[in-house]
What does this fold into?
Amino acid sequence: MKEKILFIVNPISGHHDKSKFPSIVDELIDKDKYEYTITLTERGGHAAELTKQAIENQYDIIVAVGGDGTINEVGTNMIGARQTFAIVPYGSGNGLARHLHLPLKPKEVITEVINKGVKSKIDTASMNGVPYISIAGVGFDAIIADYFAKDPNRGLKTYVKLVTEKYFKFKPEKYHLILDDKEEIDCEPLFISFANSNQFGFNAAVSPHASLNDGLLDVCIFKKPNILQVPWIAERLLTSKIDHTKIVDIHKASKIQVIREKEDIANIDGEAVMMTKDITVGILPLSLNILLPNVISSN
It folds into this structure.
């Protein structure tokens, strides 16, 4: 029996032209294996609605075709479902896709992952009940996520520009962390990331050895560096060596309580979300079925 597969396409994410995507699917997908449907999102939040409908309609595989926002919208609505999640990355950062070693070319995703991939399971996480797949955080990265979402220009250049503009004015706040109800940490960092996957996107690895199937989050506490250190730190992020520096302390936990001075925004997979003063972050082990290349694991 053929599996039913739905491609949810965000036509505007990442500013990439997706007009040829239906013809790519028709040409390359294994029609002996799949009965496929392609649908386009029409507004913010529509991908979530389409995902819920696809689950109700008993699709077997649901594919997010777009950037990190589309991927998060589809994937988080599949947590705990029997359906399998798949990704065709069309974004600028493509953080989750890069962590999973997915091809970044749509044709290769269809031939190597959709047609020949293997089904696996990965962890997901939540911050005050808001689900996420890759990385959440508080502090400077949340502020940058907010400005980045509002900027009409995407890509690494825009991200670097915003960091440069906002860095000098940023004053670190005090945080009290409780890890797994036992270890307590007081800090005044540039930002704190609660990493399920290893990177923000653009191959900027905030926690190079983070795993999507170890049942733990990497708690990455970044100190605010001297401005002269920033190029060096950027190079370490992009070469997966940031954990070899003294700029970051990395702890592992399945539950993190965050006590801060006031309510403020948080970064949840690149989206700026207002959060209460106190925050609880937790892992949901092996809660999402996902389609991966058949030559690697999800680790």
Summary: The chain has two domains: 3-116, 130-285. The chain has a mean pLDDT of 93. Residues 211 and 299 are 5 Å apart (CA to CA). The first strand starts at residue 3 and ends at 9.
